[in-house]
Amino acid sequence: MEATTLTDRNLAQQERNRKVRRVLLGILVANWVVASAKLIFGMLSQSAAVTADGLHSFIDGGSNVLGLVAMGVASRPADEDHPYGHGKFEALASLGIGAMIGVGMLELGRMALDSVLNDKHPQVTGTMAAVMAFTLVVNMVVTRVERYYGRKYKSSLLLADASHTMSDVYVTLAVLSSLLLVWLGYPRADGLIALAVMVFVAWVAYGIVRQAVGILSDTARLDPDEVKRHTLAVPGVRSCRDVRSRGMEESVYVDLKIEVDPQLTTAQAHEVADRVERTLQGAYPQVVDVVVHVEPDRAALDMPA
């Protein structure tokens, strides 16, 4: 029965990963269409802000490629070398996204300073404004779709990439504002807004890296006090301690220690542990494995005969 359950879980996880890859592939196409439009018009007009926005969108596409590769690895079932599966490769990809944003941030800063210090004046046209407005709509749709599927499939990678794409929406709004200011006679607005974009991108990168590091460093996923409350409600459990949890949002591993009546047989104590496991998996659907260490009730052992 247990082997069948594990097989079903592995198949469900592989199907979920295939769906995540399909979403990433669609987002990749959209991101590179947007990036190409921004880069072409940014370079033609010599606008630091538009070109920087295009670079940001290009990084979005690069992060999708990274995500597709990572999901290909993450979808592999558990093996002897990776008994807990390959799910953390998804978190590694999220960390890579943060690193790529950081690289892009440095380039944004260089271009912005060059624009401000050298007083470069971009050529603002109606076509450029229309292209930027179009890419803004595309980015908003992409963000909404990616966030929906990220929550549906509980994918930290899709959610991280959705945050990245959402940053593109704000960046594009800032760039449209800079184009308006340049058109009104304030040419330095191009470089100054590009600098503001750099700060915003840095904040996005920090949030993504922090989330990925939390997964990779085995940050606790469940509230220990709440887990204890559920465990102590199981008949036969006299105490619960040393609750630990780790993993990703959609696959959490838990281990804990319980104390039972020392007069119970091994089979009876094992049945109590099984009830604890079933209770926690019922309370937390994301829990894929529970390790229960059973010990005799210390207080009962210390009592005089």
Automatic annotation (TrEMBL):
Protein topology in the membrane: Multi-pass membrane protein
Any one GO CC term of the record: plasma membrane
UniProt keyword DNA-binding, yes or no: no
Broad class of the protein's primary localization: membrane
Compartmental location: Membrane
Keyword terms of this UniProt record: Membrane, Transmembrane, Transmembrane helix, Transport
Residue span(s) of domain Cation efflux protein transmembrane: 27-216
Example GO BP: intracellular zinc ion homeostasis
Transmembrane segments: 23-43, 87-106, 126-145, 166-186, 192-209
Alphabetical list of InterPro entries matching this protein: Cation_efflux, Cation_efflux_CTD, Cation_efflux_CTD_sf, Cation_efflux_TM, Cation_efflux_TMD_sf, CDF_Transporter
Source taxon at top rank: Bacteria
Chain ranges of the Cation efflux protein cytoplasmic domain: 225-296
Family: Belongs to the cation diffusion facilitator (CDF) transporter (TC 2.A.4) family.
Protein name: Cation efflux family protein
Species annotation: Myxococcus xanthus (strain DK1622)
